[in-house]
Design brief:
alpha/beta; Rossmann fold; Luciferase, domain 3; GMP Synthetase, Chain A, domain 3; 13-stranded mixed β-sheet; 5-stranded parallel β-sheet; ATP-dep_AMP-bd_enzyme; AMP-binding_CS; AMP-binding protein; AMP-bd_C_sf
């Protein structure tokens, strides 16, 4: 059977209509209620002329409207486009034009003003849906371009029925990458592949994927009541994957408007949260700071697991979380917009990230040949099986990231480096694009960052290369320190790192900053860090 995301959600909503699907700012929506709101949004989009296959940009922070815009789009076979709301003018222009968006859903006044400044250079946009009040700037710019502005609230007057045209597993879902090392790229997923890979075939806690919608319905009915808190923004791939995964299970998603550690920790007790999704140390560090401050005040009894994806999650941060609640299950997911959910890392005594053998993950050399287990050869981690079709409107980058081997096997090769041990375990070394070559030795930034995050004074850190006349490059660190902690010297940081890192991996330069710049999803901004280190 070919799965479609809207069909899957409809199936679950019919199977468990009275179960709570979404908790947002203290308001609960059952599956029946959320499905009705999504149907209204679908009718709103269709009534504005949005056709199957057309792209709808979601220029939104986390909200109920964000969720219903995603679901409403796929219900009418339109394609929702995730927009990073902190992008610059140039980045937003690129995303709106590259994605061929014909409509935009927008909320905050500052986002409306940014969109107003872009309408003249985005000729395909013909409709804007505004959540809340429309700004004068957007109204004026839209009138000049003859762009229709529609109040999102009009959806409240539309039918709740879900009678739409038949859908297909070939319908696309386009997920734009974070763009931390360049302009974002739109990853094209067939929805059937999206269900089978990012959503683990509807069975993230088992080995057997669902075979049809009847199995999806039966599994949702049997799944226990479960509260999963998404602290990351929905425009981030890990949050989007989690949203659909837990909707597929019939679980309750607790959605936060923004990542505010205080609210997340309080929600554990208030909403009886069992699992929290974070994005690496960017969220993990402030979260564990708050957990430590509120220990003894907040009841952490319901919290079963903290899950991370999309960024490095250091051993030091995990150990602090376990000190607060020793029985926590910490899951470090490995995946990307271009590969979906690849499984969970484990961490060995030396701090190495390890992936158990998988039929859908291999390590290849420069010629895309599989590296045999048990060698010391470092290669590229490649995914096979259910992978994306490519990047939207970018054949060159698609060919590089999704090459085809001589036997016809398509690969997803993102630049993650690793080696294969004798038993097939893959040891993750880091992203090749962030590899520092110092005197011929290769240093992976993630490994050094993990060591820095274990320093008691360091609240956050990024590691980048800095030009060096003798060594070619040297390891440089951009570091932020806790407000009440003494600023460590370069010598102190080097002494700390030598306890876990080889000598050539030790930072030779450290720049102290008030705050390490990251994306709203907690992803590293290496362009910024490189410029800071160079200065």
């Amino acid at each position: 059977m070919q799965f479609n995301l809207a069909d899957v959600f409809d199936t679950v909503a019919s199977a468990v209509p009275d179960r709570v699907a979404l908790t947002y700012e203290g308001v609960n929506f059952t599956y029946a209620e959320l499905d009705a709101e999504a149907n209204r949004t679908a009718h709103l989009l269709a009534g504005a002329g949005i056709q199957p296959g057309e792209h709808v940009a979601l220029f939104l922070k986390n909200s109920v409207e964000h969720v219903t815009s995603i679901l409403g789009s796929v219900k009418i076979r339109a394609v929702p486009i995730n927009v990073n709301y902190r992008y610059t003018h140039a980045e937003l222009e690129y995303l709106f034009t590259n994605s061929d968006a014909v409509a935009v859903v927008v909320e905050l006044p500052e986002h409306q003003r940014a969109l107003a400044d872009l309408l003249d250079v985005c000729p395909l946009i013909r409709t804007v849906f505004v959540v809340g009040e429309t700004t004068d700037e957007l109204r004026t710019a839209a009138a000049a371009r003859e762009v229709t502005v529609t109040a999102f609230a009009e959806a409240r007057t539309l039918p709740t029925s879900g009678e739409f045209a038949p859908r297909s597993g070939d319908d696309l879902y386009v997920l734009y990458t974070g763009g931390t090392t360049g302009y974002p790229k739109g990853v094209m997923w067939r929805q059937d592949d999206f269900f089978r890979k990012p959503l683990s075939g509807g069975n993230p806690y088992g080995d057997d994927p669902r075979r049809d919608l009847a199995e999806v319905a039966a599994a949702a009915k049997e799944f226990p009541e479960f509260a999963f808190l998404i602290a990351a923004p929905l425009m981030h791939g890990a949050a989007l994957y989690s949203l659909f995964t837990f909707f597929t299970l019939g679980a309750r998603v607790v959605l936060k408007r923004d990542f505010t550690p205080k609210e997340v920790v309080e929600s554990i007790e208030k909403d009886r949260v069992q699992v929290i999704l974070i994005v690496g140390d960017g969220m993990g560090l402030p979260l564990v700071d708050e957990m430590e401050r509120r220990q003894g005040e907040i009841d952490f009894g319901s919290l079963f697991s903290i899950t991370s994806g999309g960024a490095i999650w250091s051993v030091g941060v995990r150990d602090r979380m376990l000190a607060v609640k020793p029985d926590l299950v910490l899951r470090d997911n490995f995946g990307a917009s271009e590969s979906g959910n690849d499984g969970a890392f484990t961490v060995d005594e030396a701090g190495n990230l390890r992936m158990p053998p998988s039929p859908n993950m291999i390590v290849v050399d420069e010629a895309l040949e599989t590296i045999a287990p048990g060698t010391d050869e470092i290669g590229y981690i490649a995914r096979i099986g259910n992978i994306p079709l490519g990047y939207y409107r970018d054949e060159d980058k698609s060919a590089r990231t999704f090459p085809v081997r001589a036997d016809g096997t398509r690969l997803s090769v993102l630049g993650d480096m690793g080696r294969v041990e004798a038993d097939g375990t893959i040891v993750f070394l880091g992203r090749g694009s962030q590899c520092i070559n110092t005197g011929g030795e290769k240093v992976f930034a993630e490994e050094v960052e993990a060591a820095l995050h274990a320093h008691p004074s360091i609240s956050d850190a990024l590691v980048v290369p800095k030009p060096d006349e003798r060594m070619g490059q040297q390891v440089a660190a951009v570091v932020a320190v806790y407000p009440d902690a003494p600023a460590p010297t370069l010598e102190e940081i080097q002494r700390h790192c030598r306890t876990t890192l080889a000598g050539y991996k030790i930072p030779r330069a450290v720049v102290l900053v008030a705050e390490v710049k990251r994306t709203p999803a907690g992803k590293a901004d290496y362009r910024w860090a490189t410029s800071v280190a160079a200065s």
